[in-house]
Design a protein that fits this description.
This protein is α/β, with parallel strands linked by helices and 471 residues long. It has helices spanning 6-9, 29-36, 106-112, 123-132, 146-153, 162-170, 188-201, 229-250, 259-264, 287-295, 343-347, 350-353, 363-375, 377-380, 406-413, 454-465, and strands spanning 17-21, 42-47, 50-55, 137-140, 175-181, 207-212, 255-257, 357-362, 384-389, 421-425, 447-450. Helix 7 runs parallel beside helix 8 (229-250), helix 10 (287-295) runs parallel beside helix 13 (363-375) and helix 10 runs parallel beside helix 16. The longest helix is centred in the middle third of the chain and has 22 residues, at 229-250. Iron/sulfur cluster is lined by residues 79, 81-83, 86, 88, 102, 104, 117.
Length: 471
């Protein structure tokens, strides 16, 4: 609970259980936020065995200042599909339970940008989305061919559930789509058919991302395999052809290929303008281009997490892979936000022996960073090193930085010198933990966590080069 907030001043305590606002129960933070938005709401809470009614003094449109412990107060709606390419089926055993939840809940789509297939969407859901204008939403398309779509989802309802997409678009909801492209399943001609289907049936979509499937070493699906280089190039070619067609017909590109396709096919990323404001940045569309421009100072500001509901809801936590990242000021043991060693690190003499900065990242991230760091002046002095971390935890074609685990980072760090400062992007952490549950405290070297954008990395490097390491 925020100090001096209306809730704090009204006497709420950590652990109070919210029951009703102005006499009304609520199913999720969306309803909760709408209810507390008014002036002086009466909040009913349970504290131990007591039920209390508290009127909170606050103007309309301002937050209560309460941090709620879950986004959904009823149950998350889980998916009834069994996609061959589902990454959750490919997770090794023993990870934290929330990562195994296969959600297909439009509310999580609205709150966190999770993609929903709409196979469990209902008339009542549509009514609520339209009434409360829950926009934008994120929908998994995969194919507009009903037979192929139901085959990919392994769910007969996959053949018909895109009718809800039509209804959402008719109702004025902003919808972003995704096509997980699987080689020899929905790429090539099938992808062409899908993009034609988007043009014919869903041209109001705000954007469509073509992303490659992830294949970990733990897959049990023999048909699922990573794209070859020529298949990746074919996806890029097809998407770029359709961008031209969409631009002609609609005045905008609409469809975009994931960064992974450009890396896989050794093609340069498109220019910044070709991403039309980066509508699916968090989905790996244009991250590389945006990062480079931020690092080089060409971008006006960092391309941040999508602004949306979270920018105004009272501290509702995300979950699973899309949890909010650590605040910018959160730093690995022993470092201040500007990179200066503090406390134990300073007393341990770290301030006098640091020989330079090592930037850790995933294998794809390294391909983006390498030319940027090569141009950065510090590199000439040998003070900055790039350390790509191979993802052995998942294996397969998993090379994105966001899926690096603590065990991968530890394995690599163990063999690195102690007298360097280590930077790690915050996208590896969720609520302070790596995907395998390890924390920064479990790493064999102190690590400084840096927000995953080019400006922040540059600032962190500048801080290292400006004398902190050599005090
Ligand atoms: S819809 Fe998503 S969560 Fe459900 S099986 Fe398919 S990929 Fe997995």
């Amino acid at each position: 609970m925020a100090l001096e907030s209306p809730a704090h001043l009204a006497g709420f305590r950590v652990g109070d259980e919210l029951l009703r606002i102005d006499g009304r129960a609520f199913r999720d933070v969306i309803e909760y936020q709408l209810l507390v938005d008014g002036e002086d709401p009466e909040v009913q809470v349970r504290r131990g065995h007591q039920e209390l009614f508290v009127t909170v003094q606050k103007p309309a449109g301002t937050p209560l200042g309460i941090e709620v412990s879950a986004a959904l107060f009823d149950r998350v709606r889980t998916c009834d599909n069994h996609c061959e390419f589902c990454f959750i089926y490919q997770l090794p055993k023993g990870m934290r339970r929330s990562l195994y939840v296969r959600d297909d809940d439009y509310r999580l789509s609205f709150l966190y940008g999770n993609f929903t297939t709409l196979t469990r969407f209902t008339e009542l859901d549509l009514e609520r989305v339209l009434t409360e204008h829950l926009s934008p939403l994120f929908v998994s398309i995969h194919s507009t061919d009903p037979i192929l779509r139901s085959r990919m989802l392994r769910n007969a309802r996959g053949a018909t559930s895109l009718r809800w997409l039509r209804a959402l678009l008719d109702g004025g909801i902003e919808v972003h789509g995704q096509i997980v492209v699987c080689p020899a399943v929905n790429d090539a001609d099938a992808l062409e058919t899908t993009l034609a289907g988007v043009a014919d049936e869903y041209p109001e979509l705000a954007s469509v991302a073509c992303v490659p499937l992830g294949v970990s070493d733990h897959t049990s699906e023999p048909e699922m395999r990573p794209h070859t280089r020529s298949e990746a190039a074919a996806v890029v070619d097809l998407v770029e052809q359709w961008q031209e067609l969409f631009k002609e017909a609609l005045g905008r590109r609409l469809v975009y290929a994931a960064d992974e396709y450009y890396l896989l096919s050794d093609r340069p990323f498109p220019v910044s303008a070709a991403y039309d404001g980066f509508p699916q940045h968090e989905n790996g569309i244009g991250m590389g281009r945006a990062f480079a421009e931020e690092f080089e100072g060409a971008a006006g500001q960092a391309t941040d997490a999508r602004p949306g509901f979270f920018s105004w809801v009272d501290g509702a936590p995300a979950s699973g892979y899309r949890a909010r990242r650590l605040p910018i000021t959160t730093i690995g043991a022993g470092f201040a936000p500007d990179g200066a060693p503090t406390g134990a690190m300073r007393r341990a003499g770290a301030t006098t022996v640091m020989t330079g900065t090592t930037v850790m990242t995933g294998e794809y991230g390294a391909r983006i960073l390498e030319p940027l760091l090569a141009e950065y002046e510090g590199l000439e002095k040998g003070s900055i090193r790039l350390l790509p971390v191979r993802n052995c935890f998942f294996g397969g074609n998993i090379a994105v930085t966001g899926l690096l685990t603590g065990s991968d980072v530890s394995r690599v760090l163990e063999h690195e010198p102690r007298d360097r400062r280590y930077l790690l992007p915050d996208v590896c952490l969720s609520e302070g933990r790596f995907l395998d549950g390890l924390t920064l405290a479990d790493l064999p070297r102190p690590v400084q966590v840096v927000p995953t954008d080019g400006r922040s990395l540059r600032r962190a490097l500048d801080a290292g080069c400006s004398g902190h390491d050599r005090e």
